[in-house]
## 1
Amino acid sequence: MRLATRRAFLGGAAASAVALAAQGAGAGPAFALEQRNGVDFLRGPYNLAFFYRHNLAYRIGAGMHFFHSKQHDLLQLTRFEDHAAVDVRFDREAQEWLLNPPATEPEMPYYSSYVDRAMHTLFRTIDWTHMHHEQTYDVMAFREIPWAEKKAWTDRAVKYYLTMQTEGIPRSPAPMELTMRRAGIMMKPYFNYFRNFYPLDQSLFYVAHWWHPAVYEAQMISGNQDQEAAIKGVEDVMHREVIPSRPGRMVLSREIMPRYSRMSPESANIFDNLHMLHGIAYSILAYKGWSVEEKRAEMHRVIQAMGYQPGDEAYARKFGEPHPAYDPRTYPNWVRSPQGAMGMIMMDMLMEMLPMMYPGGLSKAEKSAVLQQMMKNGRLGIEPGEIPGSLHEAMTRIAPGMRMMPGATEPGETPRMMTETMEANWRRKAERMLDIAPIDMGVEPSLGAARVASR
């Protein structure tokens, strides 16, 4: 594999030197060291097209990746007792990076060197998927690729992304209905910590996770010729409406870029799985009940579970299309709402888990209380009546007698019986689902006036 940058080469050389020194000193096998080899980006005539054609949009994305990077060390190295002040302070700093965005894209280790040393595999995973963002934006931005050929070039980038990295690094092209069941995080003690205790920072990430699919969708509704006007509309609505009144949830690709998701469902799911990994990683780092080594073990477990596994491609089109006519230059109420596709996935999972955790059943009052806590826990901040902390902690207080599965709460372990049962159930359901229909790329769109989609 080729090394992507001189910095990566030096990092790899340093890691090799440390490994040799440790072995020479009788320190045992260097199994804890993580690979730092990089892989070069895929060459194509479209390289850097997005950077040159839509430079402000490129820079806004780079600013978002600045606060994606720095958040890791802030969570790990600041006191949890200071979370409210850290949340306010970093939200203010991060917004400055959106108002005055940087000229180039930062890699994840630039602003979080501690977490980079502790669990570099996380940053390899993120940066590799950010590379896929660059590739796919470039394909769409490059005027000389005819509209009818955009999918073929995108598929080429997807294949490269899935096959050219170490196993487990690429995110899965399967929808989150499958990957979240594999991950089995809902009873972990860190679940939703970042969302609950750092609501300002989390909500700015919700803006970022709206932005990326909104830009793709702007390209999809404008064709090769009118992208500047469409993306300018996305930039304007972000500053005018989205940042001042942020989404209350992580929006999914199928909601914000329905046309692009039909064109490349693999990329759509890859990006959803990356965005979910961001939230899980921040919650793991925010949780102070585990050592760095325990957090590292859990991080690697989640990365592997939500990563690409052979056969995932068969499920790429197994999702719905809740808002097929969405125009990304608009910001309707359903985008702002805390209720959406992600919440439905999590609630479905909880309903599947309850019979396994409470084989004797729950009373109506207990079940109602559990569902109320689930909804509160899934929204930003701590609400009146919410039990602060993890969902597991809340459930053990309001519905005692939970039967815990081995691995459900421990770092680096998977509750196998639960995840395998849930995964098998979803696969059976997927067999009965119709695939989301491909989009016709034979007719190039032209940009019209912005229209708010009612659904």
## 2
Amino acid sequence: MATTIRPRTPADLPGCADALKAVHALNGYPVLGVDNPIAFLQTDDVSWVAELEEEKDDGSSSRRIVGHITLTKASTADISAQLWWQLHPDDKTDIAVLGRLFVHPDGRGGGTASRLIEAAVEEARGRGQRLVMFALVPRALDAMRLYRKLGWVHYGSTVFRWGEGEEMAAECFASPFA
């Protein structure tokens, strides 16, 4: 079994949707987008997938999507960017935001999330961007531990709001090269 990280293609979206639904069933992430996962994932941003190659009993192999990440240019709609700009009003650095990071329960524990993050970080560095990401609490405790392990710095707390009056706390992290 080998996992490959590669750019996402339109043909990957159904597999990404299946993985997203499995993640949501396990821990409630994400809070939005599960009703129409393909629309949730289908953005103009750059995305990568983790594809697991599995050997079958007959000696053949099959591939399936077990992870996903997206890199976007920061906007005022991003709560992590909003907080960064509030704390650093004179900072004019081009910022990127990680999003839609998830790993299917079957693909966890082997460094898949770290490798997806690394792919996005390399792209952001190549663009000369600073990378910022937010993690939702309490559902994203594993993700927060991972970001801390990777050297990401917590720079503040804010509130994620959606729907009609729904909200939850969000913890914001900046990449080590920020």
